[in-house]
Amino acid sequence: MSKNPNMLRTMVGTGLMLILILSYAVYSNTVDSEYYGYETTNYGESLELELENENLSDWYATTKSAITWINVSIENAPYEELSVVINSQGVKSEWYYSPNLGIKGVDNFVCNEPESDYSGLLDTCDYSSTHTILMNNGSVIIKGRVSLDLPIQGKGYIESENIENAEELVRSKIREENRTRTWTISIYSNDELISNEGIIINAEITSHDFVSIEQFRLNPIQETAYSFASLAGCFFLVLVIPLMIYYSSIYREKRNEEIRLSTKETNN
Fold first, then answer.
1. pTM, entire model
2. Are the CB atoms for 147 and 138 separated by under 8 Å?
3. Do 154 and 247 fall within a single domain?
């Protein structure tokens, strides 16, 4: 670098520019952020299923809350090919289902694009008010997404001009999902309802209510540490690795020269 001051000036200028950019990024997301983080309840509750007929496998329940998940488990059913039909009735009663829901490590699967242009390449969720699931071994677990707009874990983010407007947007989103739905769960064999004797069935939902909202802020100390770590990493890649290669080549040349000299002395 002593022989090439331009390189030193370039490195210093690049470093200062990176520091300014990273500092502005931390400032804009700490002091003047337009994003707000909100929190909702994430209650899991069991549905009180009632029988349409005391002797047949046909249950129903009604929900009135904002729901993200519905999970149904059936056990101790006959060991034959059966069809489980889950239906939702009400205004905008469609919901999402796929056998891959809730399974980790599934490739080429996305649930939130049932009508995507890439549906031929991706496995997506079916979007309907009624879903039919096959059951062969007497038990099955069925997971369905009711809303894609509400946060799954109870924490989400929204962009808005101020916190009052952001809170109203979140509350409005939850109000829109507060729908009255009647769920029916039926088990069929050859298009006929089977007996419910001995069958164990459970249904759970995850509901949401507004809890709190606050402006999204970064931890400036933590982000500054990350920024300088990134800067050091950049300089390591740009400077240290080429220098290592350079000194390695010099060492190799010296070693080859020593070998040539020792060989010449041996020959003489």
1. 0.69
2. no
3. no
